[in-house]
């Protein structure tokens, strides 16, 4: 049975060109980039080149790129690193942030000795940060740190980060955005977003797992999470994962080169998908907001999301019932809860996230399959009464 992969917001297949660029650094060019001999210098040159590629993808200087092991580490580096450089204050985050932003912020607020408080900025029913409420919240309780994601990993809804940052700047706050889901799907320009820090990751753009970056403004004061030999300008000690960093650089270069074609292709597929889902009575979450072009988060009333995911998997389609990173803590999506979605409908949520290798034929096959599954489940339900 052929498995059709519709879960690109969770992770992506490594591109052949990316893998080819990485392979020499596992065996032939295996040096430690801190070593002074030829092997080490080769590794250092490879990292420097990758840093330039990553920087170019988001419009910054290479010195602003701090490599980390993943998006979660980069987000924690900002929250914890910025908080540790300040005495205390308020943290403002959107109510729909990824857990790797929510949890470190909540941890700071839970520790009395830290003297930090947290304020969640509400979103409207479309999943967009309520700008009026955000301005009021930041005026009443001036934040020291603000973090609002660029594009939501579940709904795909895009936030007006630049506008939020503009308000935060008037209060002297450090501003961060998690742009992991935006990179490669929409243009991402660090300067235009008007932030002090931004997180991006390789494995969402057809690069390897184990490589990401925190992009920083040179004026941002951070303390490291990991101390040691002083790698990454003293902000992230540890021997560099050269192969993964090289792959990250190539993936960034390729993502920028094909973004227009990629966006047009997946947008066309999603439009066809959502037309078919609408004919089945599906609700599309975030449909009235601007979204990244590949993401469709939907619910068919009375059809349990987890049940659909399992049955679709058996039928050859890999989809998700929410965020992959939250699958170890099942329950209602905090994103849908923040959007005031009825809990019974939220339990029916399924996420499809398309990639550049998906085809119209695959989408049509998916629609045919889900119609059959829904008809079967409704038939069983009717027989039980």
* Level-1 CATH class name of the largest domain: Alpha Beta
Helix content: 40-55%
CATH fold group of the largest domain: Aspartate Aminotransferase, domain 2
Distance between the termini: 35 Å
Total domain units:
2
Number of helices: 13
The spatial strand order of the largest sheet comes to: 2-8-7-6-5-3-4
- Global structural class: alpha/beta
Query: What quaternary form is this?
Result: single chain
Percentage beta strand: 5-15%
Q: Give average pLDDT, whole number.
A: 94
Quick recap:
With 385 residues, this protein is α/β, with parallel strands linked by helices. It is 41% helix and 13% strand.
Describe this structure in words.
The protein is α/β, with parallel strands linked by helices and 385 residues long. The chain has 2 domains: 4-12 and 259-383, Aspartate Aminotransferase, domain 1 (Alpha-Beta Complex), CATH 3.90.1150; 16-256, Type I PLP-dependent aspartate aminotransferase-like (Major domain) (Aspartate Aminotransferase, domain 2, 3-Layer(aba) Sandwich). Helices cover 41% and strands 13% of the residues. The protein has 13 helices and 12 strands. It has helices at residues 16-22, 38-58, 71-85, 99-110, 131-140, 161-169, 190-193, 242-257, 259-279, 305-314, 334-338, 343-346, 360-383; strands spanning 4-5, 65-68, 89-94, 116-121, 145-147, 174-178, 197-201, 212-216, 283-284, 295-299, 317-318, 349-353. The strands form 3 sheets. The protein has a 7-stranded mixed sheet, with helices on both faces. The chain has a 3-stranded antiparallel sheet with strand order 9-10-12. Strands 1-11 form a two-stranded parallel sheet. Strand 5 (145-147), helix 6 (161-169) and strand 6 (174-178) form a beta-alpha-beta unit. Helix 2 (38-58) runs parallel beside helix 8 (242-257) and helix 3 runs parallel beside helix 4. The two termini are 35 Å apart. 48% of the residues are buried. The mean pLDDT is 94.
